[in-house]
Each structure stands twice: as structure tokens, then as C-alpha cells.
Amino acid sequence: MTETLFSFDKRNYRECQQMFRGARDQEYYRGDFWIEDASNVEVRSERKTVGAISIIKQRSATNLFFRRTRQHIREDATDLSILWFVKHGELTFSNQCGSKVAKPGDFVITRSMSPFFIECRTDSDNVHEVLHVTVPTHILRSYIQHDFSTGLFMPVERPELAIAENILTDVFDDDGGLGEESARLLTETAFGLIGNAVRATEELQPARQSIADRRLEEVLRFIEVHLSDPQLSTAMVAKGCGISPRYLSFLLRLRETSFSELVWEQRLAKAKDWLANSDPRDISISEIAYGVGFKSPAHFSRMFKRVFGANPREFRGECSAREEVAMQVEKAERFPDFPQAGQLLQ
């Protein structure tokens, strides 16, 4: 369910600096926030949390301003990135690189670790509206490798961004019927789409693929599709891709690997991921071994321990223990009055 982060009108808008981060200063980061003195002051910000991420819909009938200086950064080094989808009005972002203006239909990323000044200006109907997402930068880095420390501006006309905006809006609008894991999965999917859009924009002139590159893609795809088959071999792959075994070896050398190294590496990586993200009550270690193409659980266990330093059962137990600790820490962060919260957060 959504909650009101802050709401200002003519009676209390001068207190906005003390209230914009929520009741316990849990949202955003330190900075100077103020609202233009106007005849009609009306600002409302509503929030939906998904783990450490907040999806916020903000609507205003008044111009808003926010400034973050180097002094603020020294006092509060919270590294958050904000994803902005501009709906109404304009968002002007200024820093040492100059100023840029985002209009309805534009997408912006800002980051808290560089000084900046933001103006949120209303349109001719006296409306400013944005959907924005606050996300710890270390989480966003998993999806977007682009350097957005000084801001990133893009039009939402890219289909990935439009779909991402729709997904985040749906998560925000959900009335509680959507489970927490589903909300998290949808939010991560939106981040992935945004990352794809950024990469696609950077690759305006993709390099032409050589015949060998295309053949190598076909080989890797064939191996991926047939990875669970214990009979997978160079002869099988060569025949399936319409090439000779000798040419197959040549293609894999371009990747600086051999057929056996590639296959066992992929099988073990998928098994490791499967073990880390499955419940022993749902699938056994033997089923996972067969599922990734091993002929016996014993062989799987020996190879897994040789590569990862622990057998599959030990590894799965460690993952379960880490997940339990992570859940307890998250509970402590969300419910600081919980009796054991202090111990968990030390």
C-alpha cells in the first residue's frame, strides 16, 4: 500500500525543510528543499517501498527547489540514485557541467554524490508531476554501468523506458494484492529494461559482426539449449550448427576456451545459481545435478567442491544461513523497535 511521505499547503509549507525526508529522515538525503511562496501552495508526495527502493509519485501546484552541496555530501554520504519520469511541467537539473531541462516524456537519472540544483516547475495549468524512484546506487550499478554521476537525460520514447515506467507505475498503484517478491521482481525487471535502453543508446553504431562471430553465437546458443543433455559433445554441436569439429575448436579458441572447459563452467555456474535460489524441499541436489547435464550426483559433487571449495550440500546450507541473516537484518531496519534489532544492526 502507498503512504504519504509529505503533504504541504499554505499552512505548513515553510516547514518543508524539516519534513520532506519523512517522519524519521528515512527518505532521500540531506539538502536544501524549499517551496515557492505562491497564492496556491499544494504539494503532495506518496511513496511505495519495495525493499530498499522507494517508488514516489509527486504532484505540485507550486514550483519546488532542491539543492545539494559538497557540505551536505560531507555531512551525509548517502549514495542514492533517483530515476525521474517527468509527467507534467519541467525539471531543470544544474551542476558543474551546465544545465539541462527535462520535459514531459523525458527520463532522468540523478545521483546524490555530486553537487546539483534542481528546479521543478509547473506547466501552464499550474501542475508539476513526476514519478521517481530512489534506489541505492550500488543496486542500480548491477543494471546500469553507464557513468551517471553528473546526470543522465533520455527521452522515454525508447520502448524499454516506456515499459519500465508502466511497470513501476503498476507496482506503485497496486493496492496490496501483489506479493512482496513479485513487486521486487517487477522492479528489478524495470531496472533491467532501463539498463538495456541506456546501452542501446550508447551503441548507436554497432560494429558489424564477422562470419566467425555469428557462428560463435550459434555455437554458444546451441550449447545453452542442450546443456542439460549428458551426451552433449563436440560432434553433436558441430552437426547441430552445420560446421566441422575442427572449425568448432577454432571458434572456441576465439573465446580463449575449450569445449570441455566451456561446458563444465556453464553447468557448474547454473548449478550454483540453482542451489543458491532453491528450497531443498522443492528440488534435491541429485535433481539439480541431472538438470544441468551431469551423469551422476557423485561426479557433480566432486567437481563442484573442486571449483567452489565446498560440496553442494554445504554450499546450499551456507546460502540458507546468509538468507536468514539478511531477512533478520531487513526486518530490523524496517522495525527498529524490534527487541533484537540493535544486535542485528551492529
TrEMBL record:
Q: Does the keyword tRNA processing apply?
A: no
Domain HTH araC/xylS-type, residue spans: 217-318
Q: Which domain of life is it from?
A: Bacteria
Coiled-coil features, chain-numbered ranges? none
Keyword Transcription included in the entry's annotation? yes
Keywords, A to Z, come to: DNA-binding, Transcription, Transcription regulation
Q: Output the PROSITE patterns linked to this UniProt entry.
A: HTH_ARAC_FAMILY_1, HTH_ARAC_FAMILY_2
Q: Which Pfam families match?
A: HTH_18
* InterPro entries assigned: Homeodomain-like_sf, HTH_AraC, HTH_AraC-typ_CS, Tscrpt_reg_AraC-type_HTH
**Alphabetized PANTHER family for the sequence:** ARAC-FAMILY TRANSCRIPTIONAL REGULATOR, TRANSCRIPTIONAL REGULATORY PROTEIN
Q: What is this protein called?
A: HTH araC/xylS-type domain-containing protein
In which organism is this protein found?
Novosphingobium indicum
Q: What is the lineage of its organism?
A: Bacteria, Pseudomonadati, Pseudomonadota, Alphaproteobacteria, Sphingomonadales
